[in-house]
Amino acid sequence: MAYSTELRNHQNEQHNFRVRLTIAALLALIAFSILGVRFYYLQIQRHDYYHTLAESNRISIVPISPNRGLILDRNGIVLAHNFFVYTLEVTPSKVGNMDTTIANLSELVEISTVDLKRFKKLKAESHSFESVPIRTHLNEIEAAKFAVNRYRFPGVELKSRLYRHYPRGKLGTHAIGYISRINEKDLAKLKEDNVISNYKGTDHIGKGGVEQAYERELHGSTGFQQVEINADGKAVRVLSSASPTSGNNIVLSIDAKLQAIAEKAFGDRRGSMVAIQPSTGEVLGFVSMPTFDPNLFVDGIDYDNWNALNNSIDKPLINRTLKGIYPPGSTFKPFVALAGLEAGKREPPYSIQDAGYFTLPNSRHRYRDWKPSGHGTVDMRKAITISCDTFFYGLAMELGIERLTDFVRHFGFGQKTGLDIHGEVSGLLPTPEWKKRRFKQPWYMGETVIVGIGQGYTLVTPMQLAYATATLANQGTAIRPHIVNAVVNSKTHVVTPIPHTVLDKIELKSQNLDIVKAGMVDVTLPGGTAASVGANAGYSIAAKTGTAQVIGIKQNEKYNEHSINERHRDHALFIAYAPAEAPKIAIAVIVENGGHGGSAAGPIARKVMDYYLLGKEPAEEIIPKPEALPANAIAEDNADINAEEEHYD
């Protein structure tokens, strides 16, 4: 057998080894160089950035929501305050199986169907990392029971949450407003106003009324805590903190007793009432009926209640005082009368012979008076007292639509009054230009004629009607109406009153005002259209009744309210101020489908004026008693505010 032996080349092997070693060393050097550069970048150049990130992981900023300011009436009666209660809250992103978690929670704490519906609704409106209440108003036993079993429920926490409460329930809801959860639209507005940072940790915001209009005053300033947390995300200690500043307190011009009297007087009828102090513009009463309980919205309204309110044929959510638009009917006549007197069209001793109708020149069409047989001889004062349609048909025709609308616009018709809460609409004061834009049609003289009695296209809000009446009572000086009287600083308790702002000064001849006012006083005397309202009043009342058509009737057809649907019947209107010689209150009342102003709307106004001028109150307690808070609730009313109450009025 032959063997072959291969000689090993040690020199070649050593060379290859050295090459590999050199390459490995270079690779290692490159790798360590890269690491060194990276370390330098992270440790030196980016030190501040990553130090901040590390601190952020170690330190959590916890916002502290401020106490919302109180809302009180002009006499110090609390209409909105706060209280703390225990709530059980779930953070969806931290919960594994939601159904199982809820089922297990239900064994410890009662969770009703309503609670579940509300939870699902709020969960759908919130981010997954935000805690959502599944049960509120826990009592001490329920809170203790969950605390013992807390370890079984990751993502579920027991919190103490601040809740808004309206102790008088439905009273004055459309004026006060309510709070509800912040939605996407609210967030967009907060970002636009650059105040989003002040709402960290806040779930609710004002909706409607004073709660919305004075949100910045009521909300306060959010505080914070710097909390050190461990690797498990649990708080270890508080490093620093800044206390929140409570929102300021709002004192309304509204008189809660007057408000309650008016709301009770409406009963189950629909409509609105506004009472104003003519010399100051202070709104004493602000009624929109039917109303609703604002407490339903604080905790997130459930489906059944929302459906009942939203789909109700009576539309309780609509603020009729600001958004309801109605033909003014005969309540428009005093202002048309002033326009005629100021234009020199009906100076005394001018009078007409009323045959019960009016016809335009070269026309056979008759515009009927409410009294078919007519009123005989009628001058300006009598025309107001008996509400003679025929007199005002002719006056409107002679004035012309442009001159008429230009004059009455000074009393606030056809424009917003500037009230200090949101949602007011402008109503409508028609002109030929408006009709051309709206209908692409010319203006006809017959349309001017019916504007003279407050019908046709003319539309007003109850707020406008009250504002116009207050301006008339104030000798033509128009004061901007306001619902808030003062803002009380929560820290210093300094009271800042809302200034009275003159919006217009209408130059009126005193003799013309005297004629119109005398006619309005006669309205409440025997022979006037509201004689029953003025009977045994104990003070003089200047007033005007009104009836506004809801649906038209044929020329020769007689109106019979009992033969038509209740919601198609005429609206009842009433305006007044008293005492007539030195007005302290001006009022406008509209009762939807109420029929006649003197019989439906007038008595409501009389009850309000009796209270305000004479101090007459119903025998029974008229203001709803404050609703009891939950047993575990802690009210946050500021005792110092009560000490200031005598300064509000």
Describe this structure in words.
The chain has 24 helices and 24 strands. Strands 2, 3, 4, 5, 10, 18, 19 and 24 form an 8-stranded mixed β-sheet that branches. It has a 5-stranded antiparallel β-sheet with strand order 12-11-23-22-21. It is α+β, with helices and mostly antiparallel strands and 649 residues long. It is 36% helix and 20% strand.
Could you outline the blueprint of secondary structure elements for this entry?
Layout: H1 10-45, H2 47-58, E1 59-64, E2 71-72, E3 78-90, H3 98-108, H4 113-125, E4 132-138, H5 140-148, E5 156-165, H6 173-176, E6 178-181, H7 184-192, E7 204-207, H8 209-213, H9 215-219, E8 223-229, E9 235-242, E10 249-252, H10 256-266, E11 271-277, E12 282-289, H11 295-298, H12 303-310, H13 320-323, H14 333-342, E13 351-354, E14 357-359, E15 366-368, E16 376-379, H15 380-386, H16 389-399, H17 401-408, H18 432-439, H19 445-451, H20 462-473, E17 477-479, E18 484-488, E19 495-497, E20 502-505, H21 510-523, H22 531-534, E21 542-548, E22 571-578, E23 585-591, H23 597-614, E24 634-635, H24 639-643
Parallel strand pairs: 2-10
Antiparallel strand pairs: 1-8, 2-3, 3-4, 3-5, 3-24, 6-7, 8-9, 10-18, 11-12, 11-23, 13-16, 14-15, 17-20, 18-19, 21-22, 22-23
Helix pairs in contact: 10-23, 14-16, 14-17, 14-21, 15-21, 16-19
